[in-house]
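REQUEST FORM: STRUCTURE PREDICTION
Request ID: SP-0412
Submitted by: Lab K.M.
Chain count: 1
Length (residues): 582
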Amino acid sequence: MPDQSGAGALLGAPTTTTEDTATTAADAILRVLEQEGASVCFGIPGGAILPLYDALARGTSMRHVLARHEQGAGHMAEGYARASGRPGVVFATSGPGATNLVTPIADAQMDSIPLVCVTGQVRADLIGTQAFQECDIVSVVGPLVKRAWQVRDPAAIGDTVREAYGLASAGRPGPVLVDVPRDVQEAIVAAPPPRPRVEQPGRAAERAAEEAVAAVAAAIEVARRPILYLGGGVVAADAAAEVAALAERGRIPLVTTLMAKGVVSESHPLNFGCPGMHGGKWANWALNMADLLVAVGARFDDRVTGRVEEFAPAAKVAHYDVDPAEIGKIRHAELPVLGDLRDAVARTVAALKGPAPSSTWVDQIGGWRRRFPLRHDRASPGLKGPQVLEEVAAAVAGAGDVVWTTGVGQHQMWAMQYLTCARPRRFLSSGGHGTMGFGLPAAIGARAALPGATAVCVDGDGSFLMTCQEVATAVAERLPVVVVVVDNGGLGMVRQWQEMFYASRLSQIDPTTGTDIAAVARGFGARAFTVWDEGGLRTALGEALSCGETCVLDVKVDRAELLYPMIEPGAAAVDVREHPAR
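STATUS: Completed
RESULT:
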Protein backbone atom coordinates (compact mmCIF):
# COMPACT_ATOMS: atom_id res chain seq x y z
CA MET A 1 0.00 0.00 0.00
CA PRO A 2 1.17 3.56 -0.58
CA ASP A 3 3.00 5.19 2.32
CA GLN A 4 0.56 7.79 3.55
CA SER A 5 2.29 8.80 6.78
CA GLY A 6 3.17 12.47 7.12
CA ALA A 7 1.39 13.33 3.87
CA GLY A 8 -2.19 13.84 5.02
CA ALA A 9 -3.27 11.16 2.58
CA LEU A 10 -6.62 9.52 1.95
CA LEU A 11 -8.54 12.56 3.07
CA GLY A 12 -11.66 13.76 1.29
CA ALA A 13 -12.01 16.46 -1.33
CA PRO A 14 -8.96 18.70 -1.93
CA THR A 15 -8.66 21.45 0.66
CA THR A 16 -8.60 25.05 -0.51
CA THR A 17 -7.66 28.46 0.80
CA THR A 18 -8.78 31.99 -0.06
CA GLU A 19 -5.75 33.76 1.40
CA ASP A 20 -3.94 36.35 -0.68
CA THR A 21 -0.90 34.09 -0.59
CA ALA A 22 -2.81 31.26 -2.24
CA THR A 23 -1.20 29.28 -5.05
CA THR A 24 -1.66 25.89 -6.68
CA ALA A 25 -0.10 22.82 -5.13
CA ALA A 26 1.92 22.43 -8.33
CA ASP A 27 3.38 25.91 -7.82
CA ALA A 28 4.07 24.99 -4.19
CA ILE A 29 6.14 22.00 -5.33
CA LEU A 30 8.35 24.28 -7.40
CA ARG A 31 8.66 26.92 -4.67
CA VAL A 32 9.79 24.35 -2.11
CA LEU A 33 12.34 22.82 -4.48
CA GLU A 34 13.69 26.31 -5.20
CA GLN A 35 13.92 27.10 -1.49
CA GLU A 36 15.76 23.85 -0.82
CA GLY A 37 18.40 24.76 -3.41
CA ALA A 38 17.35 22.88 -6.55
CA SER A 39 18.54 24.77 -9.62
CA VAL A 40 18.00 22.20 -12.39
CA CYS A 41 15.29 19.62 -12.98
CA PHE A 42 14.86 16.99 -15.67
CA GLY A 43 11.80 15.31 -17.10
CA ILE A 44 9.08 14.89 -19.73
CA PRO A 45 5.47 16.15 -19.49
CA GLY A 46 2.43 13.92 -19.74
CA GLY A 47 -1.25 14.00 -18.89
CA ALA A 48 -1.11 13.36 -15.14
CA ILE A 49 1.70 15.85 -14.48
CA LEU A 50 0.50 18.65 -16.76
CA PRO A 51 -0.44 20.94 -13.83
CA LEU A 52 3.18 20.85 -12.67
CA TYR A 53 4.40 21.66 -16.18
CA ASP A 54 1.87 24.48 -16.37
CA ALA A 55 3.41 25.83 -13.17
CA LEU A 56 6.83 25.59 -14.84
CA ALA A 57 5.45 27.64 -17.73
CA ARG A 58 4.21 30.30 -15.32
CA GLY A 59 7.71 30.76 -13.98
CA THR A 60 10.49 29.16 -11.95
CA SER A 61 14.12 29.86 -11.18
CA MET A 62 14.96 26.24 -11.96
CA ARG A 63 16.23 25.24 -15.36
CA HIS A 64 14.19 22.39 -16.85
CA VAL A 65 16.00 19.97 -19.18
CA LEU A 66 13.58 18.18 -21.52
CA ALA A 67 14.75 14.58 -21.99
CA ARG A 68 13.61 12.21 -24.73
CA HIS A 69 12.83 9.31 -22.39
CA GLU A 70 12.10 9.18 -18.68
CA GLN A 71 14.95 6.71 -18.11
CA GLY A 72 17.27 9.26 -19.69
CA ALA A 73 15.80 11.99 -17.48
CA GLY A 74 16.43 9.89 -14.39
CA HIS A 75 20.05 9.20 -15.33
CA MET A 76 20.53 12.92 -16.09
CA ALA A 77 19.31 13.72 -12.59
CA GLU A 78 21.72 11.08 -11.27
CA GLY A 79 24.59 12.60 -13.23
CA TYR A 80 23.70 16.01 -11.82
CA ALA A 81 23.66 14.63 -8.28
CA ARG A 82 26.88 12.65 -8.65
CA ALA A 83 28.75 15.63 -10.08
CA SER A 84 27.37 18.31 -7.74
CA GLY A 85 26.64 16.51 -4.48
CA ARG A 86 23.12 17.97 -4.48
CA PRO A 87 19.95 15.91 -5.01
CA GLY A 88 18.93 15.41 -8.61
CA VAL A 89 15.30 16.27 -9.38
CA VAL A 90 13.24 14.49 -12.02
CA PHE A 91 9.58 14.79 -13.08
CA ALA A 92 7.51 12.13 -14.85
CA THR A 93 3.88 11.46 -15.59
CA SER A 94 1.87 8.49 -14.34
CA GLY A 95 1.91 4.93 -15.66
CA PRO A 96 4.72 4.37 -18.18
CA GLY A 97 6.32 7.70 -17.34
CA ALA A 98 6.71 6.63 -13.73
CA THR A 99 7.75 3.05 -14.47
CA ASN A 100 10.42 4.30 -16.87
CA LEU A 101 12.05 5.87 -13.79
CA VAL A 102 12.44 2.52 -12.04
CA THR A 103 15.84 1.77 -13.58
CA PRO A 104 17.39 5.12 -12.55
CA ILE A 105 15.81 4.74 -9.10
CA ALA A 106 17.34 1.28 -8.69
CA ASP A 107 20.67 2.62 -9.96
CA ALA A 108 20.58 5.49 -7.45
CA GLN A 109 19.67 3.12 -4.62
CA MET A 110 22.60 0.79 -5.32
CA ASP A 111 25.14 3.63 -5.56
CA SER A 112 23.63 5.77 -2.76
CA ILE A 113 22.78 8.76 -4.98
CA PRO A 114 20.31 11.42 -3.75
CA LEU A 115 17.43 11.52 -6.23
CA VAL A 116 14.06 13.28 -5.84
CA CYS A 117 11.38 11.90 -8.15
CA VAL A 118 8.04 13.69 -8.50
CA THR A 119 5.45 11.72 -10.46
CA GLY A 120 1.96 12.62 -11.57
CA GLN A 121 -0.93 10.29 -10.80
CA VAL A 122 -4.50 9.95 -12.03
CA ARG A 123 -7.19 11.93 -10.19
CA ALA A 124 -7.65 10.81 -6.59
CA ASP A 125 -11.23 9.64 -7.24
CA LEU A 126 -9.97 7.34 -10.03
CA ILE A 127 -7.21 5.65 -8.05
CA GLY A 128 -7.89 1.94 -7.85
CA THR A 129 -10.14 1.82 -10.92
CA GLN A 130 -7.40 0.99 -13.46
CA ALA A 131 -7.86 4.37 -15.05
CA PHE A 132 -5.85 5.31 -18.12
CA GLN A 133 -2.14 5.31 -17.24
CA GLU A 134 -2.79 4.49 -13.60
CA CYS A 135 0.01 2.68 -11.80
CA ASP A 136 0.65 2.21 -8.08
CA ILE A 137 4.19 3.53 -8.45
CA VAL A 138 4.61 3.94 -4.67
CA SER A 139 4.28 0.17 -4.24
CA VAL A 140 6.44 -0.53 -7.29
CA VAL A 141 9.41 1.46 -6.02
CA GLY A 142 8.90 0.69 -2.33
CA PRO A 143 11.89 -1.70 -2.06
CA LEU A 144 14.17 0.73 -3.93
CA VAL A 145 13.61 4.09 -2.21
CA LYS A 146 14.33 5.54 1.20
CA ARG A 147 10.68 6.52 1.29
CA ALA A 148 7.75 7.09 -1.07
CA TRP A 149 4.65 9.22 -0.54
CA GLN A 150 1.36 9.56 -2.35
CA VAL A 151 -0.03 12.95 -1.38
CA ARG A 152 -3.81 13.31 -1.47
CA ASP A 153 -4.13 16.32 0.83
CA PRO A 154 -2.93 19.41 -1.08
CA ALA A 155 -2.16 21.23 2.17
CA ALA A 156 0.55 18.63 2.90
CA ILE A 157 2.37 18.99 -0.40
CA GLY A 158 4.92 21.63 0.66
CA ASP A 159 6.01 19.85 3.83
CA THR A 160 6.16 16.50 2.02
CA VAL A 161 8.39 17.76 -0.79
CA ARG A 162 10.61 19.54 1.73
CA GLU A 163 10.94 16.34 3.77
CA ALA A 164 11.65 14.29 0.65
CA TYR A 165 14.39 16.64 -0.56
CA GLY A 166 16.13 16.57 2.82
CA LEU A 167 15.77 12.81 3.25
CA ALA A 168 17.42 12.12 -0.11
CA SER A 169 20.72 13.48 1.26
CA ALA A 170 20.37 12.59 4.93
CA GLY A 171 22.57 9.83 6.37
CA ARG A 172 23.23 7.38 3.56
CA PRO A 173 21.92 9.19 0.45
CA GLY A 174 19.40 7.59 -1.87
CA PRO A 175 16.27 8.06 -3.98
CA VAL A 176 12.85 9.21 -2.78
CA LEU A 177 9.55 9.54 -4.66
CA VAL A 178 6.54 11.83 -4.25
CA ASP A 179 3.44 10.79 -6.22
CA VAL A 180 0.80 13.50 -6.66
CA PRO A 181 -2.66 12.99 -8.23
CA ARG A 182 -3.53 15.46 -10.94
CA ASP A 183 -6.40 17.07 -9.06
CA VAL A 184 -4.20 17.53 -6.01
CA GLN A 185 -1.67 19.41 -8.15
CA GLU A 186 -4.44 21.74 -9.32
CA ALA A 187 -5.82 22.48 -5.86
CA ILE A 188 -5.37 25.92 -4.27
CA VAL A 189 -3.14 25.98 -1.20
CA ALA A 190 -1.31 28.51 0.93
CA ALA A 191 2.00 29.49 -0.63
CA PRO A 192 5.02 28.01 1.16
CA PRO A 193 6.51 30.60 3.53
CA PRO A 194 9.80 32.13 2.35
CA ARG A 195 12.93 30.33 3.49
CA PRO A 196 16.63 30.98 2.90
CA ARG A 197 18.03 29.19 -0.10
CA VAL A 198 19.92 26.08 1.03
CA GLU A 199 22.80 24.89 -1.16
CA GLN A 200 23.28 21.51 0.54
CA PRO A 201 20.93 19.98 3.08
CA GLY A 202 22.58 18.68 6.24
CA ARG A 203 23.32 14.99 6.43
CA ALA A 204 22.53 14.81 10.16
CA ALA A 205 24.54 11.65 10.83
CA GLU A 206 25.29 10.42 14.34
CA ARG A 207 28.77 11.04 15.73
CA ALA A 208 30.89 7.89 16.02
CA ALA A 209 31.78 6.69 19.50
CA GLU A 210 35.12 7.95 20.82
CA GLU A 211 36.23 4.49 21.91
CA ALA A 212 35.58 3.11 18.43
CA VAL A 213 37.73 5.79 16.79
CA ALA A 214 40.50 5.32 19.39
CA ALA A 215 40.52 1.57 18.81
CA VAL A 216 41.14 2.00 15.09
CA ALA A 217 43.91 4.53 15.71
CA ALA A 218 45.58 2.08 18.09
CA ALA A 219 45.31 -0.72 15.54
CA ILE A 220 46.89 1.46 12.83
CA GLU A 221 49.83 2.27 15.09
CA VAL A 222 50.77 -1.41 15.54
CA ALA A 223 49.89 -2.68 12.04
CA ARG A 224 52.73 -3.69 9.72
CA ARG A 225 50.65 -3.98 6.54
CA PRO A 226 47.64 -1.63 6.88
CA ILE A 227 45.56 -0.59 3.90
CA LEU A 228 42.70 1.84 3.34
CA TYR A 229 39.78 0.50 1.29
CA LEU A 230 37.73 3.53 0.21
CA GLY A 231 34.21 3.40 -1.19
CA GLY A 232 31.52 5.73 -2.44
CA GLY A 233 30.56 6.67 1.12
CA VAL A 234 33.69 8.82 1.26
CA VAL A 235 32.35 10.85 -1.67
CA ALA A 236 28.88 11.15 -0.14
CA ALA A 237 30.38 12.35 3.15
CA ASP A 238 32.69 14.88 1.47
CA ALA A 239 35.50 13.19 3.38
CA ALA A 240 38.17 13.21 0.65
CA ALA A 241 40.54 15.53 2.51
CA GLU A 242 40.17 13.53 5.72
CA VAL A 243 40.97 10.14 4.17
CA ALA A 244 43.98 11.67 2.37
CA ALA A 245 45.18 13.03 5.71
CA LEU A 246 44.73 9.61 7.33
CA ALA A 247 46.73 7.93 4.57
CA GLU A 248 49.52 10.49 4.84
CA ARG A 249 49.62 10.66 8.65
CA GLY A 250 49.77 6.86 8.99
CA ARG A 251 51.61 6.27 5.71
CA ILE A 252 48.86 3.87 4.73
CA PRO A 253 48.49 2.75 1.09
CA LEU A 254 44.98 3.04 -0.25
CA VAL A 255 42.77 1.48 -2.89
CA THR A 256 39.41 2.76 -4.12
CA THR A 257 36.28 1.16 -5.46
CA LEU A 258 34.84 2.31 -8.77
CA MET A 259 32.52 4.65 -6.86
CA ALA A 260 35.46 6.30 -5.07
CA LYS A 261 37.76 6.69 -8.07
CA GLY A 262 39.48 10.06 -7.77
CA VAL A 263 38.51 10.65 -4.14
CA VAL A 264 42.27 10.92 -3.57
CA SER A 265 44.24 12.02 -6.62
CA GLU A 266 45.36 8.99 -8.58
CA SER A 267 48.78 10.59 -8.93
CA HIS A 268 49.20 10.44 -5.14
CA PRO A 269 52.05 8.04 -4.24
CA LEU A 270 49.85 6.22 -1.71
CA ASN A 271 46.96 5.65 -4.16
CA PHE A 272 47.19 2.22 -5.77
CA GLY A 273 44.00 2.41 -7.81
CA CYS A 274 41.03 0.09 -8.04
CA PRO A 275 40.99 -3.54 -6.91
CA GLY A 276 38.36 -6.10 -7.84
CA MET A 277 37.39 -8.31 -10.74
CA HIS A 278 39.18 -6.09 -13.28
CA GLY A 279 41.42 -4.13 -10.95
CA GLY A 280 45.20 -4.17 -10.87
CA LYS A 281 46.82 -7.35 -9.61
CA TRP A 282 48.89 -5.26 -7.22
CA ALA A 283 45.77 -3.67 -5.68
CA ASN A 284 44.14 -7.06 -5.11
CA TRP A 285 47.31 -8.49 -3.59
CA ALA A 286 47.64 -5.47 -1.31
CA LEU A 287 44.08 -5.91 0.01
CA ASN A 288 44.47 -9.61 0.51
CA MET A 289 47.89 -9.56 2.17
CA ALA A 290 47.13 -6.74 4.60
CA ASP A 291 47.10 -7.30 8.35
CA LEU A 292 44.74 -4.36 8.93
CA LEU A 293 42.03 -3.42 6.44
CA VAL A 294 40.41 -0.05 7.15
CA ALA A 295 37.23 0.17 5.07
CA VAL A 296 35.70 3.65 4.81
CA GLY A 297 32.29 3.92 3.14
CA ALA A 298 32.78 0.65 1.23
CA ARG A 299 30.36 -2.24 1.30
CA PHE A 300 32.59 -5.25 0.44
CA ASP A 301 30.91 -5.80 -2.91
CA ASP A 302 31.35 -9.23 -4.50
CA ARG A 303 33.16 -7.66 -7.47
CA VAL A 304 35.91 -6.63 -5.01
CA THR A 305 36.04 -9.49 -2.55
CA GLY A 306 35.75 -12.48 -4.84
CA ARG A 307 35.28 -15.57 -2.67
CA VAL A 308 34.57 -13.91 0.66
CA GLU A 309 35.92 -16.67 2.87
CA GLU A 310 39.34 -16.19 1.26
CA PHE A 311 39.28 -12.39 1.19
CA ALA A 312 42.02 -10.70 3.28
CA PRO A 313 42.30 -13.80 5.50
CA ALA A 314 44.98 -12.41 7.83
CA ALA A 315 43.48 -8.94 8.23
CA LYS A 316 41.71 -7.40 11.16
CA VAL A 317 38.88 -5.29 9.69
CA ALA A 318 37.94 -1.77 10.74
CA HIS A 319 34.74 -0.64 9.02
CA TYR A 320 33.57 3.00 8.98
CA ASP A 321 30.01 3.47 7.72
CA VAL A 322 26.97 5.66 8.28
CA ASP A 323 24.60 2.74 7.67
CA PRO A 324 24.51 0.14 10.47
CA ALA A 325 23.15 -2.44 8.02
CA GLU A 326 26.44 -2.43 6.10
CA ILE A 327 28.80 -3.11 9.01
CA GLY A 328 29.36 -6.85 9.25
CA LYS A 329 26.93 -7.62 6.40
CA ILE A 330 29.57 -9.31 4.21
CA ARG A 331 32.77 -9.42 6.25
CA HIS A 332 32.92 -9.38 10.05
CA ALA A 333 34.38 -6.12 11.38
CA GLU A 334 36.43 -6.44 14.56
CA LEU A 335 36.55 -2.64 14.76
CA PRO A 336 33.17 -1.15 13.73
CA VAL A 337 32.88 2.64 13.51
CA LEU A 338 29.29 3.76 13.00
CA GLY A 339 28.60 7.42 12.31
CA ASP A 340 29.47 10.45 10.23
CA LEU A 341 32.50 9.44 8.16
CA ARG A 342 34.07 12.84 7.75
CA ASP A 343 34.08 13.51 11.48
CA ALA A 344 35.15 9.97 12.42
CA VAL A 345 38.09 9.87 10.01
CA ALA A 346 39.25 13.34 11.09
CA ARG A 347 39.19 12.23 14.72
CA THR A 348 41.14 9.08 13.82
CA VAL A 349 43.87 11.24 12.30
CA ALA A 350 43.99 13.34 15.45
CA ALA A 351 44.18 10.22 17.63
CA LEU A 352 47.27 8.81 15.90
CA LYS A 353 50.24 9.30 18.23
CA GLY A 354 53.15 7.30 16.90
CA PRO A 355 55.42 8.31 14.00
CA ALA A 356 54.59 7.16 10.49
CA PRO A 357 55.82 3.59 9.87
CA SER A 358 58.59 2.72 7.44
CA SER A 359 57.91 2.67 3.73
CA THR A 360 58.62 -1.08 3.35
CA TRP A 361 54.95 -2.06 2.86
CA VAL A 362 54.26 0.81 0.44
CA ASP A 363 57.43 -0.05 -1.51
CA GLN A 364 56.35 -3.69 -1.72
CA ILE A 365 53.01 -2.78 -3.32
CA GLY A 366 54.80 -0.41 -5.68
CA GLY A 367 57.07 -3.27 -6.68
CA TRP A 368 54.05 -5.43 -7.48
CA ARG A 369 52.63 -2.62 -9.63
CA ARG A 370 55.87 -2.40 -11.61
CA ARG A 371 56.04 -6.19 -11.95
CA PHE A 372 52.42 -6.68 -13.02
CA PRO A 373 51.39 -3.58 -15.00
CA LEU A 374 48.24 -3.30 -17.08
CA ARG A 375 48.82 -4.83 -20.50
CA HIS A 376 47.01 -5.07 -23.80
CA ASP A 377 47.77 -6.30 -27.30
CA ARG A 378 49.95 -3.76 -29.10
CA ALA A 379 51.21 -6.02 -31.86
CA SER A 380 48.21 -6.99 -33.96
CA PRO A 381 46.67 -4.45 -36.38
CA GLY A 382 43.62 -2.35 -35.58
CA LEU A 383 42.68 -0.18 -32.64
CA LYS A 384 42.27 -1.83 -29.23
CA GLY A 385 39.89 -0.67 -26.53
CA PRO A 386 42.65 0.14 -24.01
CA GLN A 387 44.55 2.03 -26.73
CA VAL A 388 41.49 4.22 -27.33
CA LEU A 389 41.33 5.09 -23.63
CA GLU A 390 45.04 5.95 -23.58
CA GLU A 391 44.51 8.31 -26.51
CA VAL A 392 41.45 9.90 -24.89
CA ALA A 393 43.37 10.45 -21.65
CA ALA A 394 46.23 12.10 -23.56
CA ALA A 395 43.82 14.29 -25.56
CA VAL A 396 42.18 15.83 -22.48
CA ALA A 397 45.43 16.45 -20.60
CA GLY A 398 45.50 20.14 -19.80
CA ALA A 399 41.82 20.58 -20.70
CA GLY A 400 40.98 21.89 -17.23
CA ASP A 401 38.01 20.46 -15.35
CA VAL A 402 36.96 17.17 -16.98
CA VAL A 403 34.11 14.98 -15.79
CA TRP A 404 34.04 11.42 -17.11
CA THR A 405 30.98 9.21 -17.43
CA THR A 406 30.75 5.66 -18.73
CA GLY A 407 28.26 3.14 -19.91
CA VAL A 408 28.58 -0.45 -18.71
CA GLY A 409 30.70 -3.16 -20.30
CA GLN A 410 34.32 -3.74 -21.23
CA HIS A 411 34.77 -0.05 -22.03
CA GLN A 412 33.72 0.86 -18.47
CA MET A 413 36.52 -1.22 -16.98
CA TRP A 414 39.08 0.06 -19.51
CA ALA A 415 38.01 3.57 -18.49
CA MET A 416 38.54 2.64 -14.84
CA GLN A 417 42.00 1.30 -15.66
CA TYR A 418 43.35 3.93 -18.06
CA LEU A 419 41.67 7.24 -17.17
CA THR A 420 43.06 9.13 -14.20
CA CYS A 421 41.15 11.42 -11.84
CA ALA A 422 42.56 14.00 -9.47
CA ARG A 423 39.41 14.85 -7.50
CA PRO A 424 36.12 13.36 -6.37
CA ARG A 425 32.89 13.54 -8.39
CA ARG A 426 34.71 13.50 -11.71
CA PHE A 427 34.32 9.82 -12.64
CA LEU A 428 30.64 8.90 -12.82
CA SER A 429 29.71 5.31 -13.54
CA SER A 430 26.91 2.90 -12.73
CA GLY A 431 28.47 0.63 -10.12
CA GLY A 432 26.20 -1.68 -8.20
CA HIS A 433 23.35 -1.81 -10.71
CA GLY A 434 25.55 -1.97 -13.82
CA THR A 435 23.10 -0.03 -15.98
CA MET A 436 23.88 -0.03 -19.68
CA GLY A 437 22.85 3.31 -21.21
CA PHE A 438 23.82 5.27 -18.11
CA GLY A 439 26.78 7.15 -19.59
CA LEU A 440 25.26 9.56 -22.13
CA PRO A 441 22.38 10.96 -20.04
CA ALA A 442 24.65 11.08 -16.96
CA ALA A 443 27.11 13.21 -18.95
CA ILE A 444 24.30 15.62 -19.85
CA GLY A 445 23.28 15.87 -16.21
CA ALA A 446 26.89 16.42 -15.14
CA ARG A 447 27.26 19.14 -17.76
CA ALA A 448 24.17 20.87 -16.35
CA ALA A 449 25.73 20.70 -12.88
CA LEU A 450 29.19 21.85 -14.01
CA PRO A 451 28.71 24.36 -16.85
CA GLY A 452 32.43 25.08 -17.07
CA ALA A 453 33.55 21.46 -17.25
CA THR A 454 34.28 19.27 -20.25
CA ALA A 455 31.97 16.26 -20.10
CA VAL A 456 33.29 13.14 -21.81
CA CYS A 457 31.25 9.94 -21.98
CA VAL A 458 33.11 6.71 -22.73
CA ASP A 459 30.50 4.31 -24.05
CA GLY A 460 30.15 0.99 -25.82
CA ASP A 461 28.14 0.47 -28.97
CA GLY A 462 25.57 -1.69 -27.19
CA SER A 463 25.33 0.68 -24.23
CA PHE A 464 25.11 3.79 -26.44
CA LEU A 465 22.15 2.49 -28.43
CA MET A 466 20.10 2.02 -25.27
CA THR A 467 19.82 5.78 -24.64
CA CYS A 468 21.20 7.30 -27.84
CA GLN A 469 18.09 9.47 -28.29
CA GLU A 470 19.44 11.70 -25.53
CA VAL A 471 21.98 13.05 -28.03
CA ALA A 472 19.03 15.16 -29.18
CA THR A 473 18.64 16.46 -25.62
CA ALA A 474 22.31 17.49 -25.42
CA VAL A 475 21.99 19.34 -28.73
CA ALA A 476 18.63 21.02 -28.07
CA GLU A 477 19.49 22.04 -24.50
CA ARG A 478 22.95 23.30 -25.49
CA LEU A 479 24.67 21.00 -23.01
CA PRO A 480 27.55 19.83 -25.22
CA VAL A 481 29.14 16.50 -24.40
CA VAL A 482 31.76 14.40 -26.14
CA VAL A 483 30.83 10.74 -26.56
CA VAL A 484 33.57 8.25 -27.42
CA VAL A 485 31.95 4.96 -28.46
CA VAL A 486 34.37 2.05 -28.15
CA ASP A 487 32.69 0.06 -30.91
CA ASN A 488 33.61 -3.61 -31.05
CA GLY A 489 30.52 -4.51 -33.03
CA GLY A 490 28.53 -6.17 -30.28
CA LEU A 491 28.13 -6.88 -26.59
CA GLY A 492 31.81 -7.28 -25.78
CA MET A 493 31.52 -8.27 -22.12
CA VAL A 494 28.83 -10.85 -22.89
CA ARG A 495 31.00 -12.22 -25.68
CA GLN A 496 33.98 -12.47 -23.31
CA TRP A 497 32.00 -14.45 -20.76
CA GLN A 498 30.58 -16.72 -23.45
CA GLU A 499 34.08 -17.39 -24.77
CA MET A 500 35.58 -18.00 -21.32
CA PHE A 501 32.80 -19.83 -19.50
CA TYR A 502 30.38 -21.16 -22.13
CA ALA A 503 32.77 -22.99 -24.46
CA SER A 504 32.69 -20.11 -26.99
CA ARG A 505 29.02 -20.73 -27.80
CA LEU A 506 28.29 -17.18 -28.94
CA SER A 507 24.61 -16.28 -28.61
CA GLN A 508 22.78 -13.05 -29.46
CA ILE A 509 25.70 -10.64 -29.03
CA ASP A 510 25.27 -8.48 -32.14
CA PRO A 511 22.49 -5.93 -31.50
CA THR A 512 24.49 -3.17 -33.20
CA THR A 513 25.08 -5.00 -36.48
CA GLY A 514 24.28 -2.78 -39.44
CA THR A 515 23.91 0.39 -37.36
CA ASP A 516 25.80 3.48 -38.50
CA ILE A 517 26.31 5.13 -35.12
CA ALA A 518 27.77 8.31 -36.60
CA ALA A 519 24.75 8.67 -38.88
CA VAL A 520 22.42 8.12 -35.92
CA ALA A 521 24.19 10.91 -34.01
CA ARG A 522 24.02 13.28 -36.99
CA GLY A 523 20.31 12.54 -37.22
CA PHE A 524 19.93 13.93 -33.72
CA GLY A 525 21.84 17.08 -34.66
CA ALA A 526 25.30 16.26 -33.31
CA ARG A 527 28.65 16.33 -35.05
CA ALA A 528 29.91 12.81 -35.59
CA PHE A 529 32.99 10.93 -36.80
CA THR A 530 33.65 7.33 -37.73
CA VAL A 531 37.20 6.43 -36.67
CA TRP A 532 39.24 3.49 -37.94
CA ASP A 533 42.82 4.20 -36.94
CA GLU A 534 45.06 6.00 -34.46
CA GLY A 535 45.60 9.07 -36.64
CA GLY A 536 41.89 9.46 -37.27
CA LEU A 537 41.20 9.10 -33.55
CA ARG A 538 43.61 11.89 -32.63
CA THR A 539 42.16 14.20 -35.28
CA ALA A 540 38.56 13.50 -34.27
CA LEU A 541 39.33 13.97 -30.57
CA GLY A 542 40.96 17.31 -31.26
CA GLU A 543 37.94 18.56 -33.19
CA ALA A 544 35.45 17.18 -30.68
CA LEU A 545 37.15 18.77 -27.70
CA SER A 546 37.58 22.17 -29.33
CA CYS A 547 34.34 22.75 -31.28
CA GLY A 548 32.03 23.38 -28.30
CA GLU A 549 29.30 21.15 -29.74
CA THR A 550 27.97 17.73 -28.91
CA CYS A 551 30.16 15.23 -30.76
CA VAL A 552 29.97 11.46 -31.10
CA LEU A 553 33.03 9.44 -32.12
CA ASP A 554 32.27 5.93 -33.36
CA VAL A 555 35.66 4.30 -32.83
CA LYS A 556 35.98 0.88 -34.46
CA VAL A 557 38.09 -1.46 -32.33
CA ASP A 558 39.26 -5.05 -32.49
CA ARG A 559 36.30 -7.30 -31.80
CA ALA A 560 38.50 -10.02 -30.33
CA GLU A 561 40.27 -7.93 -27.66
CA LEU A 562 39.35 -9.18 -24.18
CA LEU A 563 39.39 -7.35 -20.88
CA TYR A 564 42.20 -8.10 -18.44
CA PRO A 565 43.11 -8.47 -15.60
CA MET A 566 40.18 -10.64 -14.60
CA ILE A 567 39.20 -12.60 -11.52
CA GLU A 568 36.88 -15.39 -12.58
CA PRO A 569 33.45 -15.57 -10.91
CA GLY A 570 33.69 -17.45 -7.62
CA ALA A 571 37.49 -17.30 -7.50
CA ALA A 572 39.55 -15.79 -4.71
CA ALA A 573 40.57 -12.16 -5.24
CA VAL A 574 44.28 -13.10 -5.34
CA ASP A 575 43.70 -15.44 -8.30
CA VAL A 576 44.04 -12.82 -11.01
CA ARG A 577 44.15 -13.88 -14.65
CA GLU A 578 46.45 -11.57 -16.58
CA HIS A 579 46.57 -10.62 -20.25
CA PRO A 580 48.04 -13.42 -22.41
CA ALA A 581 50.69 -10.91 -23.52
CA ARG A 582 52.53 -11.79 -20.29
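NOTES: The first strand starts at residue 22 and ends at 24.
Reviewed by: T.R.
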